[in-house]
Every structure is written in C-alpha cells, then in structure tokens.
Amino acid sequence: MIKNNLIQAFIWPFICISVYLILSEWPWNIFTSTSAYWALAVSVGIGLGFILSLPVSIPIRLLAATIYLPLMIVLVILYSFIFVCVVLGTCL
Fold first, then answer.
1. Nearest C-alpha neighbor of 44 from the set 82, 71, 19, 20
2. What is the pLDDT of residues 41-76, one digit of tens each?
3. Cβ-contact 50, 9 below 8 angstroms
4. Half-sphere exposure of 29 (CA within 13 A, CB side)
5. What is the mean pLDDT of residues 14-28?
6. Which of 43, 48, 58, 68 has the largest CB neighbor count within 10 A?
7. Who's near 91: CB < 8 A, 6+ residues apart?
C-alpha cells in the first residue's frame, strides 16, 4: 500500500502537467500564465493527496509532505520546460 501510494504520488503530477501542456498548444487562447500556475498546483496537489493518505502516523505524513511539496514543484517545473522543448518544439 505504501509503495503503491508513493509511486502514484510521483507519477500523477507528471501525467497531469503533460495533459495540460498538450492542451495549451491547441489553437484556442483560453490558457494563460494563471492557468499554468493552476495546472502546477493541481498536479502537485494530486500527488500530495497520495502522500497524505499514506497509512503511517500523522507526524510522518506531515514530514513527507514537507519534503514532497518543494521537491515536486521544482521537478514538475523542470519537466515542463523539457517537455515543451522536446515534445512541442518551443524551446526557450
């Protein structure tokens, strides 16, 4: 159970941000920088939900969440830059 939650906590944020990035390249102008921040928050929040549902004591969950949150924010932002450059061809 713990292993499953940890794997999902590290996979789902990347899946969510990938879907957002692909949809943001469609010809509609409904995506803004604000929606990008929301996509980042939602994708990391989904992973955080898996961390907070671990079957361990509350202090350990809070410690794991404290480590997970900044780590995943940085990883998802770096992944977004690489994804946009490699997959969508829009390098900075």
1. 71
2. 999 999 999 999 999 999 999 999 999 999 999 999
3. yes
4. 0
5. 88
6. 43
7. 84, 85
Residue 37: what residue type? Answer: Y
Task: Give mean pLDDT, residues 26-35.
Answer: 81
Half-sphere exposure at residue 64, Cβ-oriented, CA atoms within 13 angstroms:
20
Say if CB 21 and CB 88 are below 8 A apart. Answer: yes
3-state SS class at 25: coil
**Phi–psi pair at 29, nearest 5 degrees:** -100, 40
**Which DSSP symbol is given to 28?**
-
pLDDT value of residue 46: 97
Residue with tokens 């450059």: 85
Query: Quick one: 90 exposed, middle or buried, by C-beta within 10 A (0-12, 13-18, 19+)?
Result: exposed
